[in-house]
DNA sequence: ATGGCGCGCGCAGCGCGA
């Protein structure tokens, strides 16, 4: 099976891109972030016509997550447990034995901001939840926009980015804690080198110059990591007209 | 050189993203 993640930076604007990408790539599950769409405006019918079920947790203007799938979903959660938050950043669904957690981790803005503190608190709560989820769901995929470049090889200019938000030590420690729980970064199961990014700034021709960060991730529980056949960053949609600043990442799991 | 682009909201220009 194929399962992907894509921060679309407004589903209203990017719906044609998502439909085109679904048609070409035929994933079994696609997790979206930054839909920026209220639930009553979610384009359910468009995805039904494309052969996909859709579940979503949205709000006006900001944030918003969704899961598209061939199989009908069972929604388990739409928020972090025990964490007061009006921001829609979490969607957990299951498809039979497979559990999929779609995440839009807070950006953090800058390391000296209140939003950074919120990001670290949010990640601490995610870590607690991850321990429970790994017990409850042996077949767990945790994927989305983590807003963390885990290592310097995931950063085009580590010196310029040092100690900046998305790259700072506390954020990387939070990401590392998830791996210490037993989750595996599926991209790194198959590719060691640098220069592979999932986001490029709209400004300064960053995509053309491949000045990006790898911040969109697919984490796999141990049972799924054993089935990981490939993880691919698809740069193509970043080159389309009026693109999202993120591009899709897809994991292939064998025997599911 | 801290801007640079693109989004929502709403009709100007600001907050936000990363």
Question: TL;DR?
Answer:
With 256 residues, this protein is of the alpha+beta class. 25% of the residues lie in helices and 26% in strands.
Structure description:
This protein is α+β, with helices and mostly antiparallel strands and 256 residues long. The protein has a single domain (2-247), classed as Deoxyribonuclease I, Chain A. Helix content is 25%, strand content 26%. The chain contains 6 helices and 14 strands. It has helices spanning 11-25, 44-49, 114-136, 158-161, 169-180, 222-225; strands at residues 2-7, 29-33, 53-57, 65-69, 74-77, 90-95, 98-104, 140-145, 184-185, 199-200, 212-213, 216-220, 228-233, 249-253. Strands 3-4-2-1-14-13 form a 6-stranded mixed beta sheet. A 6-stranded mixed beta sheet has the order 5-6-7-8-12-9. α3 packs parallel to α5 (169-180). The longest helix is centred in the middle third of the chain and has 23 residues, at 114-136. The model has no long low-confidence stretch (mean pLDDT 97). The structure holds one DNA strand of 18 nucleotides.
Question: Which CATH first-tier class would you pick?
Answer: Alpha Beta
Average pLDDT taken over every residue:
97
| Class by SSE composition | alpha+beta
* Count of structural domains: 1
Biggest sheet, in brief? 6 strands, mixed
Global Rg = 17 Å
**CATH topology (level 3) name:** Deoxyribonuclease I, Chain A
Question: Terminal Cα separation, in Å?
Answer: 6 Å
What is the CATH architecture annotation? 4-Layer Sandwich
The ordered H/E elements are EHEHEEEEEHEHHEEEEHEE
Report strand order across the widest sheet.
3-4-2-1-14-13
How many beta-strand elements? 14
CATH fourth-tier homologous superfamily: Endonuclease/exonuclease/phosphatase
Total helices: the number is 6
- Our estimate of the beta-strand percent is 25-35%
General form: globular
